[in-house]
Amino acid sequence: xKKYVFAFVGVFTLVxxxxxxxxETLKSDYEGKEWSKVLSQTEEMIxxxxxxxxxxxxxxxxxVAFFHQNEPDLANRCLSTFLEMEGNSRYFEEAVKYxxxxxxxxxxxxxxxxxxxxxxxxxESMWETAYQLYDEVIMILPRSExxxxxxxxxxxMYRTDEMxxxxxxxxxxxxxxxxxxTLAQQSYVEIAKVYRAQLKALYLDPKYYELALxxxxxxxxxxxxxxxKGEMEExxxxxxxxxxxxxxxxxxxxxxxxxPESCMMYLKTLISKYPxxxxxxxAMQKITAYEFGPKKLRKKLISPTHxxxxxxxxx
Length: 315
Fold this sequence. Notes:
77% of the residues lie in helices and 2% in strands.
C-alpha cells in the first residue's frame, strides 16, 4: 500500500512541479515584457493543464500580452474571463485598470477583429464597447480615481454622439461623487461646452443660455480660485455671442426692410441682455447711426474701438 501512496505522490509532484516550473518561467517572461513568449506559453499551458491552479493568472498574463501587442479587443476577452473566474488574485485591480486602458483605445477609434476572431481583419467599430468598459470600471471600483476618469470619458463620448442630456448627467454625477478631484472642476467647464454644442446643433433655445450662466455661477462658488476660470469664461462668452449674433442679424434684417422701430428694438435688447458680447459695440454703432445720422456719427464716434470705449465708460 505504501508503494502506491509514494507512487501517487511522486506522480503528483512531477506533474505539479512541471506546472509550477512552467509558470515560474512564464512569470519571468511576463516581468521581462517578452510578450510573444507570454502568448505562446500561456496558450500551451491552458491546453496542457486546463484545470491548473494558475489558470486565472494565465488569462491575465495573456490579456496584458495581447494589449501590448496592440490587440486590445483580444485582451478584453481574456480580462473578462479572468474577472469572471472564482477566487482572489493579486492582479484584480490591475485587470480593471487594463479594462480602462482598453476602453480608451476603443474610444479613440481602434477597430477590432471581425466577430472577435484574431484571424479576421480589424474592421469592427468598438465604440459601443467603450461605453460598456467604462461602465465596468465604474461598477467594479466605484470610488477609485479610474472610476472618475471613466465617468469623464463616458460623458465626452455622449457629447460626441450628441446625447447632450446624458453627457450633462454624467458630468454632474462625477461632480457629486468626486467633488475634490480636479476632474470635477473640469466637468463644470465641459458642461458649458455641452451647452455650447447643443446651441450649435439645435435651435437657439434661451434656456441653455440661462443654464450656462447658472453652471458658471456654481463653478465660481465651488472653485473660486480655479485655474480653469479663464476657460470657463471663454466658453460662456461663445454662448453669449451666439445669442447676440442672432439678435444682431435680426436687427440687420429689419434695417434692410426699412423698419427702424423693429431694428432698434433688437439692437437695444442685444445691448441690454448681452452687454459683454462682441456684437454690443456694433449694436451701439447702429443705434448711434439711427440717432445722429451718418455725418454726425462720423464726427461723434470714429471707429468700433472708440465705440467700445464709449460703451465701457457708459455701461
